Task: inverse folding
């Protein structure tokens, strides 16, 4: 790693769209006790917003966007890590209130780092990233709520990052994932990942005043929110479990209490940023057990650092399939 490195950088809230700089130094980054030579990062939906200066994602200026990173420790004032250790980081406000992963170098707190699981290369860890980790947290919730193995589990926004990995994980964990997608052309891809059926998004976008519909689904992972989540709630089976983890379709929730008080539907929020370390390590262990590396490769595209704005545009338009890894050295 050289003293001067490349990275996306945003100087202040008045000009919140990051630019690619080739002259960054450690002094341009927030404080931290570990310096990481970043190998890969990724573009999640939230990074798409940050790259466009939307959603007030970056909250401490100047900064580097990117909520995920994987690489090698080059300097450490912490006893937990030493130079040469491979690490992965997602969340804890990195890429939001602390400089993030879309640069060749990062300086972060040791408490935020997870040792890279042996099963994964840095590239594979970023193919998972916050999106895959959130899919895993959702599956853990479904298991904790006691949903029976072999049950149908609906996944909305199935063609996206969280959705694609959720389908693959559910299939490996013994559930029957049913993909909900707005892109009919993705059906072969979603079935290859393990979906037993693919349902058009329109089945969940109708607005009807009826407070309940036919009770169908024992469990669901929702990455979309808004009308789609409201319709899901109406059609969950008795005591069905819905993990709400996203808002790709909107942050509102036009529902009534009927699914909860007449069918005992359980709506569970999934939050990835501030999960305690034990939960993170559990999630990464299960990811290593459940996600075959070749399955990850099917989901993933790798692009160089300069292409981040184009990926950001595409993810905000709902056009990205699966996951995009950023090779920050390319
Ligand atoms: P992606 O853009 O990769 O996937 C979202 C998918 O949602 C799209 O691919 C599309 O799938 C579907 N979609 C897009 N727009 C709409 C729309 N207007 N109406 C209905 N469906 C739509 O994003 P990610 O998978 O990275 O993230 C998904 C969501 O999860 C985001 O809102 C993100 O902010 C959130 N998230 C939350 C986390 C947490 O901590 N709770 C962590 C990570 C992500 P298709 O074309 O197949 O229908």
Result:
């Amino acid at each position: 790693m050289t003293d001067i490195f490349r990275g996306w950088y945003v100087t202040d809230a008045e000009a919140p769209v990051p630019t690619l700089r080739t002259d960054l130094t450690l002094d341009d980054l927030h404080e931290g006790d570990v310096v990481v030579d970043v190998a890969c990062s990724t573009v999640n939906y939230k990074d798409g917003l940050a790259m466009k200066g939307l959603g007030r994602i970056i909250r401490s200026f100047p900064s580097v966007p990117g909520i995920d990173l994987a690489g090698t420790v080059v300097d450490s004032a912490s006893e937990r890590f030493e130079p040469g250790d491979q690490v992965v980081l997602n969340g804890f406000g990195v890429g939001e209130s602390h400089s993030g992963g879309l640069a060749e170098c990062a300086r972060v707190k040791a408490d935020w780092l997870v040792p890279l699981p042996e099963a994964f290369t840095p590239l594979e860890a970023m193919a998972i990233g916050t999106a895959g980790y959130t899919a895993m947290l959702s599956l853990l919730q479904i298991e904790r709520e006691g949903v029976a193995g072999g049950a149908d589990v609906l996944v909305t926004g199935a063609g996206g990052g969280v959705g694609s990995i959720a389908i693959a994980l559910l299939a490996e964990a013994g559930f029957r994932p049913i993909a909900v997608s707005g892109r009919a052309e993705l059906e072969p891809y979603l079935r290859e990942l393990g979906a037993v059926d693919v349902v058009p998004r329109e089945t969940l976008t109708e607005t009807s005043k009826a407070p309940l519909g036919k009770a169908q689904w024992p469990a669901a992972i929702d990455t979309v929110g808004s009308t789609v989540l409201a319709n899901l709630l109406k059609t969950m089976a008795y005591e069905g479990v819905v993990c709400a983890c996203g808002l790709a379709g909107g942050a509102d929730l036009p529902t009534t209490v009927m699914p909860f008080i007449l069918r005992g539907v359980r709506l569970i929020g999934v939050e990835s940023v501030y999960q305690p370390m034990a939960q993170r390590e559990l999630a990464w262990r299960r990811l290593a057990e459940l996600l075959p590396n070749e399955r990850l490769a099917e989901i993933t595209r790798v692009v160089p650092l300069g292409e981040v704005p184009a990926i950001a545009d595409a993810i905000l338009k709902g056009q990205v399939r699966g996951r995009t890894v950023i090779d920050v050295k390319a």
